[in-house]
Each structure stands twice: as structure tokens, then as C-alpha cells.
Design brief:
three-stranded antiparallel β-sheet, elongated, mainly alpha, 211 residues
């Protein structure tokens, strides 16, 4: 039996004999293009090496998409929470006193989290991408096979990112920063939901088509 080349062992998550690889949504067996191929220098080997970052969205693309989404959400949330803010107090008070009406801050914070959660959950489940991801040409898919995410995966990603991030800013910062050193450019909410963010290749089938 042909032995795999030196490097990751057969048990490594990025190594699978072709007969053990699940069929991909792009046709054929194994991890769907453009996620992987034969290990360099070993053409025709029965073992295939999948570069963990091949075909995935770049870090700057992910950060750019997140920035677009945050600007969009800030505008929507600002309009929704407008009735709970006393802007006269905001401009009159030099400091120390907030401009929120009584209990308004709690209501505004709650509405902010709910709006953000619904936005990320519904857009990710329906299309695999928020408006920011649409602009940058990237899409969320299942890490296991590149297929569309489930309701639970979309909700899990959104909850981790918005609810935990909204309650604790340090968690939200660490969540996003994780893509800077992760080999698959996953944020912590991707780890939780078992998703990755891929580039949308021109002409490639959309796994969310018909959903």
C-alpha cells in the first residue's frame, strides 16, 4: 500500500484517502474545489493534502465585510433606539450623565443585540452571506463539506458573535481577532458553528441556490 508523504499523519483532519472523502457539492468525490488537491510533489498519490486555507476568504476580506456590516447595523440600530435617547441631555451635559431616558439604555442595548442577532442569523442561513460579505464576494459554508449551513449553525454563529460579544466586549474582540492567526481563518464563532468563510468563485455553483 502506498504510504502518505512525510508531513501530517493520516489521522490529521486535512488528510483523507479519496475513498473516505465525502462527495462535494461541486461534483466528484473529496473536498470540493478550490479547497484542495494532491500534495505537492506526490502526483497521483492515493492520499490528498488539503491546504487548510485554500479557497477560503482572506483575512482583510473578512475584516472589511465585518466593517461594512457594523456600519449598516449602527445606522439601523441608531434609528430604532432613537426614541430612548434624550439628545437634549446629550448636548447639555458636559460629562458624567448619560443621555438615555430612564431604563432607555437597557432597552436600547437589548434591541441592539436582537437586531444584530436576527441580521446575522437570517442572512447567513438564507444566503450564506451578509451584505458586507456580498460586497466582498465571500460566503459562509459548512467546514465539513462546503455545503450550506443549517438553521442551528447560523443561529449559533450569530448568538456567539452578537450576544456574547454584546455582553462582553473582550469576547467580541477576541472572537474577531482569532482569524489573524488561525490556519483556516476561522473566528471563534466559526469554531463553535463548524463553519468556514470561502471566496465566491465566478461560475461556481451556489450551495444556497433554491433555499
Amino acid at each position: 500500500m502506498t504510504q502518505p508523504p512525510q508531513g501530517p499523519s493520516p489521522g490529521d483532519r486535512f488528510w483523507k484517502p479519496p475513498q473516505d472523502q465525502p462527495p462535494g457539492p461541486y461534483g466528484g468525490g473529496g473536498w470540493p474545489p478550490p479547497y484542495g488537491g494532491h500534495y505537492p510533489g506526490h502526483p497521483g498519490s492515493p492520499w490528498e493534502y488539503r491546504d487548510p486555507a485554500a479557497g477560503l476568504a482572506g483575512r482583510w476580506a473578512r475584516l472589511g465585510a465585518a466593517l461594512i456590516d457594523l456600519i449598516l447595523l449602527a445606522a439601523v440600530i441608531g434609528l430604532v433606539t432613537f426614541p430612548f435617547i434624550d439628545y437634549g441631555r446629550v448636548f447639555r451635559t458636559p460629562g458624567g450623565e448619560t443621555g438615555y431616558l430612564p431604563t432607555g439604555q437597557w432597552v436600547a442595548n437589548f434591541l441592539s443585540i436582537v437586531i444584530a442577532f436576527l441580521y446575522y442569523w437570517l442572512t447567513t442561513y438564507k444566503w450564506g452571506r451578509t451584505l458586507g460579505k456580498q460586497v466582498l464576494g465571500i460566503q459562509v459554508v459548512r467546514a465539513a463539506d462546503g455545503g450550506p449551513v443549517t438553521q442551528g449553525q447560523a443561529a449559533g454563529r450569530a448568538a456567539f458573535f452578537t450576544v456574547l460579544g454584546g455582553l462582553c466586549g473582550c469576547i467580541g474582540f477576541l472572537d474577531v481577532a482569532w482569524i489573524l492567526w488561525d490556519d483556516r481563518r476561522q473566528a471563534l464563532h466559526d469554531k463553535v458553528a463548524q463553519t468556514v468563510v470561502r471566496k465566491i468563485e465566478p461560475g461556481a455553483p451556489d450551495p444556497y441556490a433554491g433555499r
